[in-house]
Input
Amino acid sequence: MDDALEVKNIEKVTNHDVKAVEYFLKKKCQSHPEIAKVLEFFHFACTSEDINNLAHALMLKEAMNGVVFPVMDKLIKAICKLAEDNASTPMLSRTHGQPASPTTLGKEMAVFAARLSEQRHEISQVKIKGKFAGAVGNYNAHFSAYPSVNWPLIAKEFVESLGLCFNPYVTQIEPHDYMARLFHAIIVFNTILIDFDRDIWGYVSLAYFKQTTKAGEIGSSTMPHKVNPIDFENSEGNLGKANGNLSHLGEKLPVSRWQRDLTDSTVLRNMGEGLGHSLLAYKSALQGIAKLQVNETRLSEDLNQSWEVLAEPIQTVMRRYSVPEPYEKLKELTRGRAVTKDSIKEFIEGLELPKEAKDYLLELTPHTYVGAAIELSKTLDNAISLVNGVTTL
Output
């Protein structure tokens, strides 16, 4: 802490952060006999951005690999468990907010797990880059002092020794394109999670999920009965804040006038904000998932009240056997009308279909008409790929 304060005191005079660090290091090393002989090789042929771009790259790499990815992975695994545990739990789908062909709760969770896993993989493929090529990216100063040295090779070896990917084509700055790719990829991950948060919020509202309560917790200052889905709301709010920050970073950072302007400098100081709000969101979602309890009774009630969803398989089987106007006949039976188990049964029995086809339709219920949903839930592992860390070389 004392060293950091000393650097800040030097910076008050220099009004230049990197130069302040240089002066601090020189002062520190004056008493070291070997280093004292080469003090002027501190910051030799460098521009400040040679230092800063590598520091930012290393911070991003450590933040992603050490902090962000582990929580992303924990979140994906938690959603995978929801999918696996509820692979066979039938649920009424809703398109446009209206009853649609049944699915299983597990399959709908599997969709989110697969989407998040795929996007997490995309994030991991972004190469974290660095440069060390001087004031305008040409090694001008380097060659003026040592013209016979292969400076591009030395720079490449040095940058790669830090575990970063070397970028040979730069100006005064590393162009930040990789940062834009990284932040936009995180935005997509976050947007998928917003979709998840909102869907879970909706399922809680429909009472498809109950939420475990904690002794002493209060849901409303005036309504004692309230158990609100606050974790998913907090997650959604933080994701929106994160995406706003990351979006500006992704749009701003690749743009710098000519060989460099300073507009990126102040913006780069805010990388932590977008990642921080993302992290808060992931942890809030995890906290919410841990409180969820499936309400199978409520799920079953909705299915029992939605026999009209069997209009789809009936008209499809009718098409198979060339029954004329199948869609129109089912539309007349079901649209805007109360449809019951008995009315569906009566309609099927009146169809001119082979016995096996008719028997199949008569055995169908909203609980069993789930297509491949169960199998999709149970084979989710095939779609999940949690690779380690971001690409460096």
Remarks:
- The mean pLDDT is 93.
- Strands lie at 90-95, 98-104, 129-130, 165-166, 209-211, 292-294.
